[in-house]
Task: structure prediction
Amino acid sequence: MKILVPVKRVIDYNVKPRVKADGSGVDLANVKMSMNPFDEIAVEEAIRLKEAGAAEEVIAVSIGPAKAQETLRTALAMGADRAILVETDAEVEPLAVAKILKAIAEAEEPGIVMLGKQAIDDDSNQTGQMLAALMGRPQGTFASKVAIDGDHVSVTREVDGGLETVKLALPAIVTTDLRLNEPRYASLPNIMKAKKKPLDTKTPDDFGVDVAPRLKTTHVGEPPVRQAGEIVPDVDTLVAKLKSLGVA
Result:
């Protein structure tokens, strides 16, 4: 069984994003980029399934600029077998991503497409669900545990009321949550080996997908600055203050 793992190049989660002066978007100049943390968890889980003998091959795929090769090389250094870059400088929206992944999945025929539940740059949380709908495959979202059982996969997912376990017939779509695992660090020898692993480059046109945006961002701004608190001497003063503010 193959496992296809889409990964996205995003601003590193330790970096505080800066908004462009004209409010047209986020400034990416000289900003550290890395693999989306949820996708990193998906790569780790796919590799663990391969190590357990449940899969034979892990394929990483990314849709983005040429520099996304760095993100794919990270996945290869972690243990993925090969990679596919769908190169485009356009800002690809979730539906277009899902359509490209559908075309790749139809060509590769993976048993599982495992992807992060969302990307930390736009927090859309849409691609996995859209992909499942386009392909007509069962889906297990927000996975905190994944187990292969013959021709099925059991996914324990995090829901508002606690945990829910679903059993999906393969092939299936799985999206990963934070508590699924702790991604490994790529060792130096594996980083060197990753440079020799195959990485194919495609374009959206190769899959017949139009990546023209359907949404237009009109303005991006900083969140409002949090106001300083106020210390009051006693409860009566606190109650009076709350009443004056209309919240009590």
